[in-house]
Design goal:
Distance between the termini: 17 Å
Order of helices and strands: HEEHHEEE
Low-confidence stretches: 105-112
Strand order of the largest sheet: 3-2-1-4-5
Helix content: 10-25%
Structural class: alpha+beta
Strand content: 15-25%
Shape: globular
Oligomer: single chain
Length: about 120
Amino acid sequence: MTIAHGLTLFEVGRTFAQAVRDEPAVKSLWASAHRDYFELWLVTAPVDADTERRLYGLIELLFEAFPDARIRLHVINREAFEDFELTSIVPRGAENYSAALVLDDGCADERSSAQG
């Protein structure tokens, strides 16, 4: 889906995946596009509050890269979830950008859809 000035979900998801790629706590990244904004879910291993705040701060990289885009970030810290179920947090249809956390070729479209 294209929203702001031709910006696509793939560009936003891939850019953020590259920004968090070296973060050891990051386990997966999901993204979706809505009528007028993008939404990201960054799933982490259990982390402390300082690390969680630092991860939230990485959204600034997206604001710099795409200044006209509206983007929401949710850091899903496994520390806060006793019974973690991805399907209860990430909405159906969100795209999985986890493969982009490890890929560096810049050309493979490794997306898959969440929950069907």
